[in-house]
Design goal:
Elements: E1 10-16, H1 21-32, E2 37-43, E3 48-53, H2 59-72, E4 76-78, H3 90-109, H4 112-126, H5 128-140, H6 145-161, H7 173-198, H8 200-207, E5 212-217, E6 220-225, E7 234-237, E8 246-249, E9 255-258, H9 260-263, E10 269-271, E11 276-277, E12 282-284, E13 288-294, H10 300-313, H11 317-326, H12 329-346, H13 351-365, H14 368-387, E14 390-392, H15 396-403, E15 406-409, H16 411-415, E16 421-427, H17 435-446, H18 452-463, E17 471-477, E18 481-486, E19 489-494, E20 516-522, E21 525-536, H19 540-549, E22 553-557, H20 562-572, E23 576-578, E24 597-601, H21 607-612, E25 615-619, H22 624-629, E26 632-634, H23 639-675, H24 685-703, E27 720-722
Parallel strand pairs: 15-22, 15-24, 22-23, 24-25, 25-26
Antiparallel strand pairs: 1-3, 1-4, 2-3, 5-6, 5-7, 7-13, 8-11, 8-13, 9-10, 9-12, 14-26, 16-21, 17-18, 18-19, 19-20, 20-21, 21-27
């Protein structure tokens, strides 16, 4: 998994009070001006800021300056240790409506001045932060929703205080000013609660990172902060508790765990002694003890959480384009509103009515719905994929996946299970060693290799109960083989050298079967060839069929023997399949494929191809090189998950288009409606606020439809036996 950013020069902050893209630009601009800040990015959907601080700058001083700058432009930096879902202040909304009802009653009695003071009280208490930000924005001529609302509220209060009473409504402008603030506050609360659902995956990961861990010290179990646990310490996990660290299971009995939070697999997993247990797993049934291997940001859960936060940090190209358009909306509407107000006054309207119409235009013009149309949808899609075990490293990858035309598979560990078994050993003519000796020496240099063939050799040695000696100077060349010194001799396990074919009785070789082959050389002399078989993944055929229906050109590129690759391609009905390739040959760029290209692989030898494709997907991979090259990490090795990612990406693009079209259409219609006085029939600026809030809520709810998508590929019940070697 990709390592978390170095905490010494990366800062992450949660920010309260943002409502539209203008807020994002304002904060980014304020933070970027601070000496020592290298880069600043703000995300509206997750309400977070990511700041890169110069390594030479004092972190504490720069962080204090950043928080001061954010608060200086009217926003708050939240210091909660853990992420909190939005929409937790419903009681404030209830109190606001009670105060508004009291204001209405006072107005009906006829106490106009008391009504005005009560309205001011409601505005100050309920809309204090909005008014503060609005005043600062007006003073700096940097306008957003807060500035427009502030202008509308202040204009209504001033007109009410002046005693203007020519409007046909029974209630004063003071009531309308307080109603405007309360309606906006209520709309934002509903929107916050809906937006919080888009962040459920991130919240679930945070909740599953226990603050405390029980560590053995001097023979006793002591509770300590989970991040303070050191590698090698023993950690005790109780029944139905989340595991606080990555660790090796100790003891003699297996334990049952729920890993659904990480892998998306709902079935419990049985872990045997000495197996790796991931942080965030839920213990089922009984307590157990681990030996800590990784904690905090270095654990599996911590790294996945970093992937989610990094993905939210990125912006889709469509979002960037919308932001450029949005920044011109407010100045244009503000200018138009003054022209409209003057036109109404020249047409015989009162000052109060003209101000109300202008204020309605100010409130309804804010492009909040446009601004959140894409970010909320992206956050929802990223969260839903995380629940299924697919973690997006950069948000732009989803847009590229949605537009992709070509999908390229690695073979071993991708379309096949990646767990080959040794089927046959063919000894070379004049070989000096026996089968057991060949397996023992080969297993010695393959014991730490993540390569499927290496694992198969080591497992065969264990099955034969051979004592595997230690190896030294072990070197692995990706796509070529492994070499090392064992018991004083140089051992190599590599691709077959066809110049050595004459050393083998070819008629004895299983040439009629598509078996993967590894050649063993000891002290410069070829001793044997090993033949391996594997199985096609259960979901492979159905997933390939689904991808073909989705319009993809499918291809297989592998380093394995061409005959093996062709056999697998025939089983999957994939015409474009080539074997015998080196890692750098899998994707060259001159294949004539339609772009974008998605590369799906699991091994270190897929990293180069992933880097050359527009999008790289790592399928159940654990090798650092592969994970660094991948844009999307699939925690479980299931090709059906590839289909689900593509389905979600395409649905995401469709939802974003719907949101943008609806939001832009709303803004255009609403602004013209306000200019012609349509909102006067439903409360003027307050009615405009209701319409504006409704549009934002509608966009959020439409984005949440991504949660209800049926993304599933049914696997076949029987596996198909095949043979292979990893490319």
């Amino acid at each position: 998994m990709q390592r978390a950013p170095d905490p010494s020069n990366h800062l992450q902050l949660r920010i309260d009070g943002m409502s539209c893209p203008a807020c994002v630009r304002r904060i980014e601009r304020a933070v970027s001006r601070i000496e020592g800040v290298v880069q600043a990015e703000v995300d509206l959907a997750s309400e977070r800021a990511w700041v890169v601080i110069s390594e030479k700058a004092p972190r504490a001083r720069v962080q204090a300056a950043i928080e001061h700058a954010i608060e200086g432009v009217g926003y708050r930096v939240l210091h909660e240790e853990r992420h909190q879902l939005g929409g937790k202040n419903g009681w404030e909304v209830v109190v606001a409506w009670i105060c508004l009802a009291l204001t209405y009653f006072i107005g009906r009695v006829g106490w106009s001045r008391l009504e005005w003071f009560m309205a001011v009280f409601v505005v100050v208490v309920v809309g204090r932060r909005t008014i503060e930000r609005g005043v600062k924005q007006i003073a700096s001529f940097d306008l957003s929703l807060d500035a427009l609302v502030t202008m509308g509220v202040l204009a209504s209060l001033v007109v009410a205080f002046m005693g203007e009473s020519t409007h046909h409504h029974a209630h004063s402008e003071a009531l309308m000013a307080s109603l405007l603030v309360v309606v906006l506050r209520t709309g934002k609360e509903i929107e916050a609660r809906a937006k919080a659902r888009a962040s459920e995956a991130v919240e679930a990961l945070f909740r599953s990172m226990p603050r405390l861990a029980r560590v053995q010290k001097d023979g006793e179990w002591v509770e300590v902060p989970a991040p303070s646990v050191k590698r090698g310490e023993k950690v005790k996990v109780g029944p139905f508790e989340h595991v606080p660290v990555d660790g090796i299971l100790l003891g003699d009995e297996p334990v049952e765990l729920d890993e659904s939070l990480i892998t998306g697999e709902s079935k419990p997993v049985l872990k045997h002694p000495q197996a790796l247990v991931k942080a965030g797993s839920l213990a089922l049934g009984k307590s157990f003890v681990l030996q800590a291997e990784a904690v905090g940001a270095e654990s599996e859960l911590g790294r996945l959480l970093q992937l989610l936060l990094q993905a939210q940090q990125g912006r889709l190209p469509s979002i960037e384009s919308v932001d450029r358009v949005v920044r011109w909306v407010i100045p244009l509407v503000l200018t138009s509103s003054f022209v409209v107000a003057i036109a109404w006054m020249l047409g015989g309207a009162s000052l109060k009515q003209s101000v109300r119409i202008a204020a309605s235009m100010w409130v309804v013009a804010c492009p909040c719905a446009v601004g959140i149309a894409a970010p909320i949808a992206v956050a929802t899609a990223i969260g839903e994929l995380a629940k299924k075990g697919a973690f997006v490293r950069r948000a732009t990858a989803l847009e590229e996946v949605a537009r992709a035309k070509t999908l390229v598979f690695d073979k071993t560990g991708t379309v096949t299970c990646g767990a080959p078994k040794l089927k046959k050993i063919l000894m070379a003519q004049g070989a000096l060693l026996g089968e057991d000796e060949i397996i023992k020496l080969s297993a010695a240099i393959e014991s730490v290799s993540p390569h499927p063939i290496g694992r198969a050799i080591f497992e065969e040695a264990m099955r034969r109960k051979l004592v595997v000696p230690p190896a030294s100077m072990v070197e692995e060349q990706v796509g070529k083989g492994v070499s090392g010194i064992v018991e004083g001799v140089m051992v190599k396990v590599r691709r077959p050298d066809h110049q050595c074919d004459e050393l083998f009785a070819i008629e004895q070789a299983p040439e009629t079967e598509p078996l993967s082959v590894a050649e063993v050389e000891v002290d410069g002399r070829v001793q044997a060839r090993m033949y391996f078989e594997d199985f096609l993944r259960d979901s492979a055929k159905d997933s390939v069929k689904a991808l073909r229906k989705m319009g993809f050109h499918l291809a297989i590129r592998s380093g394995d023997d061409a005959r093996v690759v062709q056999r697998i391609a025939e089983e999957l009905d994939i015409k474009d399949a080539i074997g015998g390739l080196h890692p750098q040959e899998k994707i060259r760029g001159d294949e004539g494929w339609l772009r974008p290209v998605v590369m799906v692989g699991d091994g270190a030898n897929d990293a180069i191809a992933m880097g050359r494709a527009e999008v790289g997907m790592a399928l159940g991979a654990r090798m650092e090189l592969t994970l660094r090259a991948a844009d999307i990490v699939l925690e479980r090795p299931d090709l059906g998950l590839v289909v689900e990612v593509i389905q979600m990406a395409r649905s995401l693009l469709r939802i974003i288009r719907q949101n943008l079209v609806a939001a832009f259409a709303y803004n255009v219609v609403a602004i013209f409606a306000a200019a012609f006085g349509v909102f006067e029939a439903i409360g003027g600026p307050a009615g405009a606020a209701l319409a504006m809030s409704a549009s934002s809520i509608a966009v959020v709810l439409n984005s949440l439809r991504l949660k209800k998508l049926s993304l599933k590929v049914r696997p076949q019940k029987k596996s198909i036996a095949l043979s292979q070697k990893d490319a």
